[in-house]
Amino acid sequence: MHYLLFFFHAGALAAPAFTGGPVIIGENGYTSAPYHGPYTGTPTTTGAVMAPGTLAPSIEPKPPNPTATYYNAAGVPQQPMPAPYSDWDFESIALGVYQEYIELDLFHDGLARFTDAEFTAAGLDPEVRSLIQFMANQETGHATLLSNMLGEAAPKQCVYDYPYTTVREWVDFMQRVTRYGESGVWGFLAHLDSREVAQLLSQSIATEARQQMVFRQMAGLTPMDVWFENGWPQSWQWTMLAPYVSYCPEGTTRLAWQNFPTLRILNNPNINRVDANNTAQDGSEAVGDRIADPSRSNLTSGESCINAQGVGVNCQAAIARNRTQPLSYPGKRVFFDWEAPGQAVGPNNSYITSTTAGEPKFVAWSNQLNLTYSPLTVTGAQAGWTTQPEGFVYDDEGIINGTMAVMLTDTDLFVTPFNLTQLNPHIVALGLYQAG
Ligand SMILES: *[C@@H]1O[C@H](CO)[C@@H](O)[C@H](O)[C@H]1NC(C)=O
Ligand SMILES: *[C@@H]1O[C@H](CO)[C@@H](O)[C@H](O)[C@H]1NC(C)=O
Ligand SMILES: *[C@@H]1O[C@H](CO)[C@@H](O)[C@H](O)[C@H]1NC(C)=O
Ligand SMILES: *[C@@H]1O[C@H](CO)[C@@H](O)[C@H](O)[C@H]1NC(C)=O
Ligand SMILES: *[C@@H]1O[C@H](CO)[C@@H](O)[C@H](O)[C@H]1NC(C)=O
Ligand SMILES: *[C@@H]1O[C@H](CO)[C@@H](O)[C@H](O)[C@H]1NC(C)=O
Ligand SMILES: *[C@@H]1O[C@H](CO)[C@@H](O)[C@H](O)[C@H]1NC(C)=O
């Protein structure tokens, strides 16, 4: 529960209209406080709050924690893992290096690939392109910081295989890539042994979060449609990233994370439609079969929101956009098919998808502070559907919104944002849902 607490002694009330007391967000809505202005009474106490005593006048400087650095020149785990796919600090940062390198290349690629006329048609004027250029340069800094943490064994820049052919699809892909980059870090940050590393990563992931929001704006999506950003296990991030990495140089440090089979969302809402409820139900409106592939942008002019006129239907790049027809909604029937494990993915096709789960029974929806389930109806070999559930974080804030992870699971395990990784052994397949 989050409270806004107002501690006022009754006798010290300066403003006659002040009613005081705890405000529970959402109970009766919140309009404006009855009084705004300076304090005009007399303080009943002064100074910072004191403990029963202090142990010393200042804190003695100490050497860094033994966990402060994670140089591992060998680049492979040196200790037995506590459980499969869970060598934490080194491997988390190594994953971060893979992420920063794809972003460095990806943000530059579209700028080099598309013409001024194509950018203008997508609503991205030269000032916007300069911003993308700046974000591309931010990635140089992020890749440098993370590589420096790992030293010799840092993974290297690879060759990537991108799914987009238009400016719009490029921007859409970037809002998906930065979603898994951002959520992947929120997932492991609080579990790092090295708080020193966590400090620096916090400062880079705050920037990545802004990039994700800016790319949503450039894709004509609502910039923020959640109250809390979701954190994901590393293996989810790696599952989403690996299919876009094609070649890596000889000797590139390998990762210890799991690659789950891909869950394809056959009617994943097409962000370029005026009415995303009309998205085809056969998967044909994603540009390809890979997990984070963007929506097709080549719709007919009647269907496309890119040049549609008016609030609620136009989805050109903007600071904020409304949609009269939502991208998705509770009660929507969502159709899936999923891959069998054993597919070769990632750098040089050298990682193999796997699962330790039993038969899929549930669809798990991970977003905000929540992991919520709906029952899966299996309709064939690796095919099925579910109904998008309704559920709220607080007040009327729907859990399912934005760019988020969904998965098939063999059980409806109770997990929290802090122990979400415990779900991994139960995941049959993982997908990226474009809610909104
Ligand atoms: C998703 O977020 C948008 C923007 O805040 C809001 O208009 C919409 O109602 C939300 N959708 C659901 C299903 O909660
Ligand atoms: C990936 O393949 C390329 C080309 O075949 C090769 O040069 C490179 O060493 C390979 N990388 C790894 C990490 O095996
Ligand atoms: C979405 O489409 C389905 C099937 O065409 C229809 O039954 C449903 O009412 C539509 N929902 C919305 C919110 O438009
Ligand atoms: C969009 O592109 C796909 C793949 O090339 C094609 O199948 C489809 O017909 C195109 N749609 C339109 C409206 O041009
Ligand atoms: C935008 O949508 C919100 C609800 O999500 C609504 O309250 C608001 O009136 C809409 N704004 C416009 C300009 O249509
Ligand atoms: C979502 O998470 C919040 C915070 O833990 C919790 O209060 C709320 O009940 C959860 N909602 C659902 C539907 O589980
Ligand atoms: C996750 O943490 C919550 C809160 O501590 C606990 O109730 C739950 O059992 C944990 N789940 C698993 C699978 O460990």
From TrEMBL:
Pfam families to which the protein is assigned, alphabetical: Ferritin_2 (PF13668)
Cleavable signal peptide: 1-19
Signal recorded as keyword: yes
Superkingdom classification of source: Eukaryota
Keywords, in A-Z order: Signal
InterPro entries, per database record: Rds1
Record-given protein name: Ferritin-like domain-containing protein
Organism expressing this protein natively: Aspergillus pseudoustus
